[in-house]
Amino acid sequence: MPGHGGALPQGRRPVKAFFDSDIWWSFTRSPVVVLSAIVALVCIIGAVFSPLIAPHNPFDLASLQLMDAFKPPSWEAEGDPLYLLGTDDQGRDMLSAIMFGARVSLMVGFCAVIFSTVVGVTVGLVAGYMGGKVDALLMRIADIQLTFPSILVALLVDGVVRAAVPREVHDQIALFVVIFAIGISNWPQFARTVRGSTLVERNKEYVQAARVIGLSPLRIMRSHVLPNVMSPVLVIATLNLSFAILAEATLSFLGVGVPPTQPSLGTLIRIGNDFLFSGEWWIAIFPGIALIVMVLSVNLLGDWLRDALNPKLR
Question: Which carries the bigger pLDDT value, residue 257 or residue 71?
């Protein structure tokens, strides 16, 4: 067939369209964003594959040596080349502990954001599409929750759940409780944004046509309205990932986060805080730096994505 030889394979068309898009052009023109993406990718890879690439397993009790406790970073006079960033009070390698801790922090952050996104998008779609008393009720609930700081809501939810379940199962459900507490404290942001977009979309012609042909409200919301309100949701989710990581670190630092058997970066900072003024500064400083770098890179990516998806700034 004429011209058939120059056609791209079906699978490569979306890829080529992405690399030709304004978003990719904006990404490559910003060195700060590129650097942030690289740093975030390194953090994610190091955390996800920590059992494979970490120099040591800091939670293998058989391999820990108390004689190696409080070793400074390897570049100091009393440092050991085996422990690049030193060791903590139990002789655990700090670099490995940070990699394993970042894995827990990222898992909690991603799961909490997914949970809050599902809840917020569902509430926002229903409120915006149904309108009336349903809209008023759901938005007043969101307004009430927004009057309280998210971290206080997370602390309250965590405390209520822990008080409602037997003490012997606290450690088993602690991870799920933290995810639920952080996720349930962030859904109003998604709900309000999706509701505003849905109010605009529900009066457009394609929604009116779907109603005329007899589609159910659920199908119209899922198949027609939802795909057109997801751009701001993606931006909010990216920005909320950094908040979720910080919220988890705060809860763990206060001692109500993940259990000690699954320490996150917040737990490592809390442990190191006890030795900060006795000279073992690296136990708290290095996990703190890792947390700052991870959150900052995600925040910079979220800010860029917000600008890149804003049609007014193109």
Answer: 71
Architecture of domain 90-313: Orthogonal Bundle (1.10)
Both tokens assigned to 20: 């030709």
User: What residues form DSSP beta bridges with 87?
Assistant: 93
The DSSP call for residue 71 is P
DSSP, collapsed to helix, strand or coil, labels residue 87 as strand
Residue 227, both tokens: 């795909």
Domain boundaries, the chain: 90-313
Cβ proximity of 295 and 129 under 8 Å: no
pLDDT one-digit tens code per residue, 93-150: 899 999 999 999 999 999 999 999 999 999 999 999 888 899 999 999 998 888 888 7
Give residue-wise pLDDT tens across range 49-67: 998 998 888 877 777 777 8
CA distance 301 to 162: 35
Identify the bridge partners of residue 93 per DSSP, sorted by sequence position: 87
Q: How far apart are CA 15 and CA 47, in angstroms?
A: 28
Which residues have a Cβ under 8 Å from the Cβ of 179 and sit 6 or more positions away?
Answer: 108, 111, 112, 115
Q: How many CB atoms lie within 10 A of CB 77?
A: 5
d(CA 185, CA 294) in angstroms, rounded, equals 21
